[in-house]
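Batch manifest, entry 17 of 40.
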Amino acid sequence: MERRIWQLANILFNDDIEDDISAGVPPQLRKKFNHRIKKDRLSRLWEGIVREKHTKDLEKYESPEERAVALLCSHRVEEACKTLVDSGNLHLATLLAQIGRDSTIRADMQKQVESWRKHNVYSEMSEPIRALYELLAGNALRSEGKSGGALEDRASTFTFTERFNLDWFQAFGLRLWYGITEDEPIEAAVSKYLHDLTEGDEPAFPVPCHLASTRAGQNYYTSDAHGRESPLWVLLKVYAVAASHADTPGLPKLEFPAAVLPESVSGDRLANRLSFQLHHFLCALVGQHDSFVVDAGRTDQLVWDYATELSSVGQMELAVFVLLHLSRAVDRERAVKEMLAQFAPRLPNPVAADGSPDATWRYFTEELQLPEAWIWVAKALHARDIGDAPGEVDYLIKAKNWNEAHATFCRIVGPRTIIERDYATLEKLLSGFGDAPERKVRGWASGGGVYEDFLRLVTTRGGKRDANRLKRLVGALVAMGETVNKGSGVEGLEERVAFREMSRVVAGWCVNEDKDVSYLVSVSILCLSTANGQRQAVELSAVLNLPLTGDARVMHTAEMSRRYYGVVMAGAY
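Output type: structure tokens
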């Protein structure tokens, strides 16, 4: 049935179809006769649907007139005429050849039928013959009889649907083929059928196919308790509303997505794809229209349901696409971020393993225009979940979430690289913050800046260390000393160990590499002035205030005392 739905949608809403029907109309006249072209295409489709459903029904009709009615219900006019000719009813066969074509014959037949009813002729005709004449008169609903008067003058009243066991496809087909004139558009047939349904005269309600199949042997019934309708009928009503004219009254307001919910379209509450597609297809086609009412809340619920259905089977790309149809921007952002986080292990990098641009990445960033930062943050969350702290920092940096990246770096990655002496990883992550990181990151001087200064000093090769950087590092380490020393327990252990390790190394530089430290007095130069003495004492005090371990503090204190008093004693001589 889905194929039929899209075929019908293509016929009704696509004006650019080129086929054998349009080929017979000159291009300059197609706009004028567009409604006739659409009507012929719909007629062909409807014939195919009815004939497919009721191919074997003809076998149960014995009377040629009943067989002719059944053939007309499939728009097989020539075969119906042949059946009547073979039975010897040449007069009715001749009239039937003009059915649905000549408005004059229709008008004359309406008068004739009324005359027969008035003069009790109907009582002498069989119901199938009466039905044929009614169809010739353009009446596709019922044949009115006569209940009063003499017994022999009475005639039954019957609807075609009940008398010939028709379903809604056949009932609507009668309106399309015989209930309107050749020049009347599709919406006229829709209006007639809808009017008969609304008034309660037509029992063949357009129920969905999955409901019809549950009522074997019954082709006519009223609406179910939920008012569910066939999506084909919904498409016809949408087209009639969108293309309605002054002469097609009575078309109702259409509520979406209620008209195309899964209960009506597929029969499976968990199968939302076709409902989602139909709803957004029709909304895009119709746009703003007084008779087209869209419930934003139910639309969003349909989006959520379909996205959940897709995510449950691992279709991440489609699920993200669907979530972008939520009505509110804040809901779209939250939902897409959650979906990306859910599928974070599968999220791609911009470049595939073979060096070519990754197709999924391009789909997300170019076609769906998702911010790259959303993808990187999702990957960062996954890295955190699996304990990959360097990867988390790297992804947060790529997402330009500078402060979050800095916090994770200072709490986990920086200390760990110091302890493990993994200076390559430290260099890679610090370089990710770019130039002038202090302008992007809060607290850089007392966080990442400390690791950066240490890295630059520890990786110095064949030259003097930068005295200003070393002095700044000592000051930062001293400032962090109190905070580090207050910590206890497992939390923050790596950070405390890393600061003590850096302090140990820095203290070693200060003590053992006099030539590289500007604030230590050289052994070969005596500086006993008050200013120089005070300066030396402050700097020595700073080194002693570093957060050192106990044995390192004793060792460095002894060494610095020895050097200090060595200088004093050298000055005495």
